[in-house]
Amino acid sequence: MAATLPPPRLLPSGDSAVTVEFSRTIDEDANQRVLALDKALAASPVDGITESVPTYRSLLVHYDPGKIGFDTLGEKLLALASQPLPPATTARRWRIPVAYGGEHGIDLEDVAKALNTTPDDIVARHVAGDYKVAMIGFTPGWSYLSGLDKSLHMPRRQNPRLLTPAGTISIGGIQAGIQCLAAPSGWHLLGRTPVRTYQLHRNPTFLTEPGDRVTFFAIDHKTFEEQDRAAEAGEIVAEQVVA
Questions:
Q1: Same domain, yes or no: 64 and 172
Q2: Peptide bond before 8: cis, by omega within 30 degrees of 0?
Q3: DSSP SS3 for 146
C-alpha cells in the first residue's frame, strides 16, 4: 500500500528545480503520492515555486532560488509528502473512440501473432481496460496510461519508427498511450483516435490531465474520418462520462 513506501528522495535538478522521487520504477502507489503532492501544492502554494510537473514516479518542482532556497523548499516538500493520502475523489472519466487496425493500426496483426491470438481479441482486451492518465509528457498531450491488462504487456519495438501518426493509440511494455501529435515511437500501434488531447487554439487546450480515467471504444474507419474533421474544427469528440 502507499503508506508503506519509503520517504521520497530530493534530487537537485539544476539550480532552480528539485525532483521529489517516490520510486525508481513505475508504481501505482507512487503515482498516487505524486499526484497527491501536486494537488497539495496547488491547494497550499509555496512562495517561490513557479511550476510543478508530475510524472509516473516523481514530481519535478521548479522554483525561484531568489525567493526560496533548496533546503527550505526541501523541508516544505517533505512535510507535504509525508501527509496521509487524501480521501479518494471521483475522477473525470473519458470515453475515447478508436479506429483499430488497417492503416490506422498497422501493428495490430503483429501484436496478435506475438500474443498467439486474433486481432479481434486484442481489440476486445484493449477496450475492456480501465485506464488512468498517470502523466502527460514527451510531446504536448501525450497521455501515458496505467492499467494495461497484463495479457497485453509486451516489449517495445526493437526498431522505433521515426514518425508515427497523430492520434495513435499504442501499447509498449506495461503501458498504454494516447499520442496527440505526429512523433517518433517505439510502441506498437493498435489504432488511431480522432480525439485531440492537445489543440492549441481550443478551450481547453489540454483535454486530459493526470488522474483522469480513460476507456476506449471501437469505431469504423468512416466514423473516424467524420469525427476527425469535427475534431480538427475544434469539437471535443471524446465523451465525458458523468458519474
A1: no
A2: no
A3: strand
* Cα-based distances in Å from 96 to 92, 108, 179, 180, 240: 13, 18, 12, 12, 9
How far apart are alpha carbons 102 and 79 in whole angstroms? 51
54 and 122 within one domain: no
202, 234 Cβ separation under 8 angstroms: yes
Whether residue 87 is contained in a domain is answered as: no
Count of the separate structural domains present in the chain:
2
The pTM of this model reads 0.89
Give yes or no: residues 98 and 76 share one domain. Answer: no
Q: What is the CATH number of the domain that holds 49?
A: 3.30.1360.40
Rounded CA gap, 105 and 62, in Å?
A: 38
Quickly list DSSP for 160-229. Answer: -EEEE-TTEEEEEBTEEEE--S-EEE-SEEEEE----SB-TTSSSSB---TT-EEEEEE--HHHHHHHHH
Question: What secondary structure letter does DSSP report for 154?
Answer: B
**pLDDT by residue (tens digit) across 155-213?**
999 999 999 999 999 999 999 999 999 999 999 999 999 999 999 999 999 999 999 99
Closest by Cα among 184, 191, 181 to 125: 191
Q: Are residues 29 and 55 in the same domain?
A: yes
Place of cell 525561484: 64
Query: Domain range holding 62?
Result: 2-81
